[in-house]
From TrEMBL, chain A:
<dbReference type="InterPro" id="IPR056729">
    <property type="entry name" value="GMPPB_C"/>
</dbReference>
<feature type="domain" description="Nucleotidyl transferase">
    <location>
        <begin position="4"/>
        <end position="203"/>
    </location>
</feature>
<dbReference type="InterPro" id="IPR005835">
    <property type="entry name" value="NTP_transferase_dom"/>
</dbReference>
<dbReference type="InterPro" id="IPR029044">
    <property type="entry name" value="Nucleotide-diphossugar_trans"/>
</dbReference>
<dbReference type="Pfam" id="PF25087">
    <property type="entry name" value="GMPPB_C"/>
</dbReference>
<feature type="domain" description="Mannose-1-phosphate guanyltransferase C-terminal">
    <location>
        <begin position="284"/>
        <end position="421"/>
    </location>
</feature>
<dbReference type="InterPro" id="IPR050486">
    <property type="entry name" value="Mannose-1P_guanyltransferase"/>
</dbReference>
<protein>
    <recommendedName>
        <fullName>Mannose-1-phosphate guanyltransferase alpha-A</fullName>
    </recommendedName>
</protein>
<comment type="similarity">
    <text>Belongs to the transferase hexapeptide repeat family.</text>
</comment>
Automatic annotation (TrEMBL), chain B:
<keyword id="KW-0342">GTP-binding</keyword>
<dbReference type="GO" id="GO:0005525">
    <property type="term" value="F:GTP binding"/>
</dbReference>
<feature type="domain" description="Mannose-1-phosphate guanyltransferase C-terminal">
    <location>
        <begin position="277"/>
        <end position="385"/>
    </location>
</feature>
<feature type="domain" description="Nucleotidyl transferase">
    <location>
        <begin position="29"/>
        <end position="259"/>
    </location>
</feature>
<dbReference type="InterPro" id="IPR029044">
    <property type="entry name" value="Nucleotide-diphossugar_trans"/>
</dbReference>
<dbReference type="GO" id="GO:0004475">
    <property type="term" value="F:mannose-1-phosphate guanylyltransferase (GTP) activity"/>
</dbReference>
<protein>
    <recommendedName>
        <fullName>mannose-1-phosphate guanylyltransferase</fullName>
        <ecNumber>2.7.7.13</ecNumber>
    </recommendedName>
</protein>
<keyword id="KW-0548">Nucleotidyltransferase</keyword>
<dbReference type="GO" id="GO:0009298">
    <property type="term" value="P:GDP-mannose biosynthetic process"/>
</dbReference>
Length: 422, 386
């Protein structure tokens, strides 16, 4: 048997909600729990037996991704390639465009994972499920699904599943009224037959283009997975639903990065405890990742849920909690960092306080997902959220920066509260 | 009556220091208008009467009493206002401990700002000597001897101390001639009239009692204007700093002014240990950790523990409080026995009442916290925490 995996990562025009963190670095490469977001995907894929190749598809420039890909190949000793779409091709257009690359070697199945989700990916279980069930149904795809609350389901793709045979009955992307609490996770297993489906849709679109006078050529070759491939499959029995109870979340905002940081660190505790920090000095509380090259003073108190990046300096008497500190940053004496993301090469002075507000799911509602509040509230004020310092930001001593977003290369001179600082 | 030498003994309230002071008896008396419950200085005054709250490590009342005693005053009457019985007993207990004999004058009905004088007439007007009247919230370089000299020189019935302020329109201003004869008072002027205001300290001859009845009377509205018309009222210009420390913001500003004066007069008293910045007063029984920054303008009371890495600026830390490691405090008052956790940030005139516990990593901005409260959530905007 031969299996492949494709990770879809989009490009600079997408993922704008991840700014300012995505201004200098492709979002998929942002480090959560010490490792780039899609490295977590790669690690999950690597566990699959018979996995022979991982293809990363997106429209970031090749030079933006090549170093990362090179490192992944070295680390996991697996075929990993980055293929750049020549223009944004939608959620399925890239798959169709590079179908020959995906099909070559005749894989029995291929996974497709969305780059902007984070999860305890149950890929092996999903593969077993697809293998056992597809025979009966002639299914060409299995979607991974999870429960959400009634209200939150409206922002996802909603799924109605036929519980008798696990087939997809009905699918609506971001409905305006309630359809179902079962939502699409953005993780799929496809059989190569799906390319016939895609070809039909693609060719029809081309025909439409050529038949209509002055047809718009914008996004001529774009294909949308949810709307144009999955929705038509609903009710035909050709699409299966695999429901998972494991942790899953979208990763669209910096607040989500803090949330994912906590969960991935927690997964390390279960599966790779050697990655987590474990010592008396500095004092470690809960799950903490410290890059081997980071410089942490023995009197610092870190955690829970903290990731410290390469060559970061954490000084005397500091306290860091529920935060991500990126490479080469410096947190000076006595300071406190809480629910914040400190961008690369930034500096926080002495006795300062950098503090954000978490956007955790409602603990009273089962299956509640992270709050995805808009940036501003109805009165035009910034909604309290994670504090983010872009890269190369300087915070002076003795100030407080609370619920604020600071764009890269900014040098602050006073305290801030609930502001975006350009 | 009068003229006899006698010994007045009192203990300075620094523990274990006994001082026998042989004070020559002039026969001057003083009336300190202590007033009532000091609601503006809550939450501190919920635990203790305002005169006993320590300003620069000494109860507010003692700043005035010590200056009075040094100027030859033998008897001090504390005018405690209507419905303040409990305060009288607390004050009496404290001053008895200090070994000072004070007389209490207690209103049984509200008497306004002039009535208390009439109530204490028997003591104040018992002889020919003039007497002082002081507002208890005033802190300055008390010029009592100079006031007496000035008063005797002009020979009229009353002297009011005036002081220059930046924003006189918030107060009542005093208008007087070059010789100091007061012409009139203007309450909260709408246009600039003068920048001198009533500093809350007076000397009166016993004859003033003719002008005061034992009923609610306002000295500013009913007595002073008449005296001014009769050309019996003079203004003594105060030199140096002045502050009404009856509310937290002014308490903190007043401390800064007071410490500046200490720097000029007696710099050896100021803290010069590790981490000292600017002017600070630290009680010898306080313990200060490593890598701290103390000051400028900080007073630290007895038994206070400041752990490692703490930065304190423009604060008053009262007796037996503890500030744990790496915290940062600016412009605050920390009440008696409080425990402030690690990595705490307090700023913007935060006042912690007695025995408040602030948990680690909390941020309080302009909070007023009532006594015995435990704070486990940050207070990012000014508010009162009950």
């Amino acid at each position: 048997m031969l299996v492949k995996a494709v990770i879809l990562i989009g490009g600079n025009q997408k993922g704008t909600r991840f700014r300012p963190l995505s201004l200098d670095l492709p979002k998929p490469l942002f480090a959560v729990a010490g490792f780039p977001i899609i490295q977590h995907h790669i690690e999950a894929c690597v566990q699959i037996p018979f996995l022979k190749e991982i293809i990363i598809l997106g429209y970031y420039g090749v030079n933006e991704m090549s170093q990362f890909v090179g490192e992944m190949v070295q680390l996991y000793k697996l075929n990993i390639r980055y293929l750049q779409e020549f223009e944004p091709l939608g959620t399925a257009g890239g798959l169709y465009h590079f179908r020959d690359q995906i099909r070559c070697g005749n894989p029995d199945y291929f996974f497709v994972l969305n780059g902007d989700v984070c999860a305890d990916f149950p890929l092996i279980e999903m593969l077993e499920f697809h293998q056992t069930h597809r025979e009966k149904q002639q299914a060409i795809v299995t979607l991974m699904a999870t429960e959400a609350t009634r209200q939150q389901s409206l922002i996802y793709g909603c799924i109605i599943e036929n519980k008798e045979n696990n087939t997809l009955e009905h699918y609506v992307e971001k409905p305006s009224t309630f359809i179902s609490t079962l939502v699409n996770c953005g993780v799929y297993i496809f059989s190569p037959e799906v390319f016939h489906q895609m070809a039909n849709v693609f060719n029809k679109k081309q025909m439409d283009f050529y038949n209509v006078e002055n047809g718009s050529s914008v996004e001529r070759e774009a294909l949308y997975l949810e709307k144009e491939i999955l929705m038509p499959l609903a009710g035909t029995g050709k699409a299966l639903v695999y429901q998972t109870l494991k942790w899953w979340s979208q990763l669209k905002t910096p607040g989500a990065a803090i949330y994912a940081n906590r969960h991935y660190l927690n997964l390390f505790r279960e599966r790779r405890p050697e990655r987590l920090a474990n010592s008396d000095q500095p004092t470690i509380i809960g799950d903490v990742y410290i890059h081997p090259t980071a410089n942490v003073h023995p009197t610092a108190v870190l955690g829970p849920n903290v990731s410290i990046g390469a060559h970061a300096t954490i000084s005397y008497g500091t306290r860091i909690k529920e935060s991500i500190v990126l490479a080469h940053s410096r947190v000076l004496d006595h300071s406190l960092v809480l629910y914040s993301i400190i961008g690369a090469n930034s500096e926080i002075g002495c006795w300062s306080r950098v503090e954000g507000t978490p956007c955790d799911p409602n603990p009273d509602k089962p299956f509640a997902k992270m709050e995805n509040a808009p940036l501003f509230n109805d009165e035009g004020r910034l909604n309290p959220s994670i504090t983010i310092l872009g890269n190369n930001v300087t915070i002076p001593s003795e100030v407080i920066v609370r619920n604020s977003i600071v764009l890269p290369h900014k040098e602050l001179t006073r305290s801030y509260n609930n502001e975006i600082i350009l | 009556m009068g003229g006899k030498d006698s010994l007045l003994t009192y203990f300075l309230f620094k523990k274990f220091d006994f001082v026998l002071l042989d004070v020559k008896l002039g026969t001057m008396k003083a009336l300190i208008l202590v007033g009532g419950y000091g609601t503006r200085l809550r939450p501190l005054t919920l635990s203790r009467p305002k005169p006993l709250v320590e300003f620069a490590n000494k109860p507010m009342l003692m700043h005035q009493i010590e200056a009075l005693l040094e100027a030859g005053v033998t008897q001090v009457v504390l005018a405690v206002s209507y419905r303040a019985e409990q305060m009288e007993s607390e004050l009496r207990a404290e001053t008895d401990k200090l070994g000072i004999t004070l007389t209490f004058s207690h209103e049984t009905e509200p008497l306004g700002t002039a009535g208390p004088l009439a109530l204490a007439k028997d003591i104040l007007a018992s002889g020919d000597e003039p007497f002082f009247v002081l507002n208890s919230d005033v802190i300055c370089d008390f010029p009592f001897k100079e006031m007496v000299d000035f008063h005797k020189a002009h020979g009229k019935e009353g002297t009011i101390v005036v002081t220059k302020v930046e924003e006189p329109s918030k107060y009542g201003v005093v208008v007087y001639s070059d010789q100091g004869r007061i012409e009139k008072f203007v309450e909260k002027p709408t246009e600039f009239v003068s920048n001198k205001i009533n500093a809350g300290m007076y000397i009166f001859n016993p004859s003033i009692m003719k002008r005061i009845e034992l009923r609610p009377m306002s000295i500013e509205k009913e007595v002073f204007p008449c005296m001014a018309k009769d050309a019996e009222l003079f203004a003594y210009e105060l030199q140096g700093f002045w502050m009404d420390v009856g509310q937290p913001k002014d308490f903190i500003t007043g401390t800064t002014l007071y410490l500046k004066s200490v720097r000029e007069k007696n710099p050896a008293m100021l803290y010069s240990g590790p981490g000292a910045v600017g002017n600070s007063l630290v009680d010898p029984t306080a313990v200060i950790g490593a890598n701290c920054r103390i000051g400028p303008n900080v007073t630290i009371g007895p038994g206070v523990v400041i752990e490692d890495g703490v930065c304190v600026k423009r604060c008053t830390i009262l007796r037996d409080a503890t500030i744990k490691s790496h915290s940062w405090l600016d412009s605050c008052i920390v009440g008696w026995k409080c425990v402030v956790g690690r990595w705490v940030r307090l700023e913007n005139v935060t006042v912690l009442g007695e025995d408040v516990i602030v948990k680690d990593e909390i941020y309080i901005n302009g909070g007023k916290v009532l006594p015995h409260k435990a704070i486990s959530d940050s207070v990012p905007e000014p508010q009162i925490i009950m």
